[in-house]
Amino acid sequence: MTEEQQQSLCELIRQLGAQAQALRDAGLQIDKKARQDFVSQADLFVEKEIKSWLKTHCPQDGFLGEESGLESGEQGTWVLDPIDGTTNYIQGMDYWCISLAYVRQNTLELGIIYAPDRHEFFFARRGKGAFLNDQRLTLREPDPETVIIGMGRSSRAPAENYTHAIARVLNAGMEYRRFGAGALMLAHVATGQVHAYYEEHMNSWDALAGMLLIVEAGGASNNFLADDGLLNGNLVLAGCAGVQARLSALLPA
């Protein structure tokens, strides 16, 4: 991808964020996929527009979208969650985002997360650093007594696993938060507002962009793409290197 194409893609994502806000404000058509799992008119619109742009500008690449599934390509694969945190979005909360990543030869190359209501545009490219609104992000280890962990809950794992993990974190002297949009919480790990993120199972469209942000900001993560994580999803454990190592010993893999 050229620098010009990269800028064009980022501008498209900003525009689609604004259009998603306008669609919500005008009243949305919402369908239910499963219990506490919704898809809105905006999810479908954003995915269609980004997929169309990528087909035009990156025709050799494949595409994996939360709403439309996988289309294989000759080179890499673009991985999209058009709106992560759909429930927050339709309820008028600001904690939602568009999340896009690019994977080539089983390596994360690029990640973009845009939270329109919060005016936060995150960008990372492998070996080039992580940025929030064009400001470089650099992680530092927190005071061990002030550690906060983001903890997502997957409907694909027993609820008891989640409550047991919370108990282990609290008993180890750490705090936790759950805001309902794992991609955006991973991005906030990269800013240092949260010190690590754990979820027993995430889909690739939720996880990849944020995990690259953390690594490029100087943090550490598990190998999400192992065991065909791109298609099957995987555990997510990423954060400041010291906190991530501490959690690796504390929480089940």
Automatic annotation (TrEMBL):
GO molecular function: inositol monophosphate 1-phosphatase activity; metal ion binding
Cofactor: Mg(2+)
InterPro entries in alphabetical order: Inositol_monophosphatase-like (IPR000760)
Binding-site list for Mg(2+): 66, 81, 83-84, 206
UniProt keywords, alphabetically: Magnesium, Metal-binding
Keyword Metal-binding: yes
Record family assignment: Belongs to the inositol monophosphatase superfamily.
PANTHER family recorded: INOSITOL MONOPHOSPHATASE, INOSITOL-1-MONOPHOSPHATASE-RELATED
Entry protein name: Inositol-1-monophosphatase
Species assigned in the record: Klebsiella spallanzanii
Gene transcribed to yield this protein: suhB_3
